[in-house]
Every structure is written in C-alpha cells, then in structure tokens.
Amino acid sequence: MILLKKINDKDGFSLVEIIIIIALGGIILTAVFSSFSSGIRNFYFTEEKSATQREIRFLTSYIAENIRNSTRIELVSDYNEALDSGEAIIGFDGAEFKYRDNSGTDRTVIEFTKTQTVSFELNTENNSPDSLIINIGDVPREIILNNFSSTSANDTDQYIKFKK
User: Fold this and answer.
1) How wide is the angle at C-alpha 25 spanned by C-alphas 20 and 28, nearest 5°?
2) pLDDT tens digits for 70-126?
3) Residue 153's pLDDT is what?
4) Residues with Cβ < 8 Å from 64, sequence gap 6 or more?
5) 71 with 88: CB under 8 angstroms?
6) Going by C-beta distance under 8 Å and a sequence separation of 6 or more, which residues neighbour residue 133?
7) Helix and strand numbers, DSSP H then E, in the chain
8) Has residue 22 got a pLDDT over 80?
9) Is the pLDDT of residue 1 over 70?
10) Per-residue pLDDT tens over the stretch 35-67
C-alpha cells in the first residue's frame, strides 16, 4: 500500500529541472557542432592543399620529361610563336598549362583549380649545372638539363620553347 501511494504521488519535473536539462543539452550540442564544423573546415583546407601539391608535382614531372634532354631551350612570351621542325612550346595561358608542337598538336595538359602565378627561369651560371627553375607561386622547382644550349635572350618568361 505504501509503495503504491509513493508511485501515484509523483509530481513530475519542476520547471527549474527542465531549464537545467535544456541548458546542459544546448552546451553539449554546441560543443559537438563546433568540433564537427572545425573538422569539416580542416578537411576542405587539407583537400585544397593536397590538390595544389598534386598539380605542382604533375606539372614538374611533365616539364622534366619533355625538356630534360632537349638540345635547345628558349624562354618566350608568345605561345603562338612559329615552330621549326622538332620544336615544341609549353607554358601557361591563364590557369591552363598548354603544349604545342610543330606537327600541329595543341592541347591543354592540365587546368589548375586555383590560378597559380608561374614563371620559368634559366640558370646557366658556370659554377652550377644548367637548370630550369619553375616558380609556382612561392615554390621554386629546379630541373637539371642535359645536352643543353640556351638561345634565350630572356632569363625569365611565361613559355618554354624547346627542341626535342
């Protein structure tokens, strides 16, 4: 009898208890949401950085494969410059990295997702091996050149004209 009376005598939650539960729930949800949004932001930042690094690595490899054993390299400012037999030109046109050779092949090799500032620089100092320095944003990449002779009047430019 006493047990039944106690069960039936329950009044429920007071207003203060409900407010405390709602406040604690709000604090917990705020902490969870903050942690989640921070993780999402970090993921997108890392993904963007990874994509840029992947593009730079691809670009450097592509240039190295095409010009490393070139017999002549010239830095030029016009992509549509006339090409002689065995010559090709590579470089940037806006966010597109393009390749064109004298046989008529003209293609976009890669299109950067983020526009990068890119310039090419020939290093032909006597105390170091001949090399091509690719400045992508603030990151310089160097490619050592074999069997090389420079006919370039410019030390820095936008396109690389080379003889295969």
Assistant:
1) 125
2) 888 888 888 888 888 889 999 888 778 889 988 888 888 888 776 567 888 887 777
3) 52
4) 143
5) no
6) 120, 121, 122, 123, 140, 141, 142, 143
7) 2, 10
8) yes
9) no
10) 999 999 999 888 888 887 888 888 888 888 888
Q: Which amino acid is at 157?
A: D
- Cβ-Cβ contacts under 8 Å for 6 (sequence gap 6 or more): none
Tokens of 78: 């016009």
Running DSSP on this structure, what letter comes out for residue 80?
T
Burial class (CB within 10 angstroms; exposed 0-12, middle 13-18, buried 19+) of 114: exposed
Residue type, 5: K
Q: 142 with 123: CB under 8 angstroms?
A: yes
User: Which of 161, 110, 118 is CA-nearest to residue 139?
Assistant: 118
Distance CA(57)–CA(114), nearest Å, equals 15
The 3-state DSSP class for residue 72 equals strand
Contact 59, 97 (CB under 8 A): yes
Residue carrying structure tokens 């030029």 = 76
User: Quick one: which of 6, 159, 136 has its CA closest to 73?
Assistant: 159
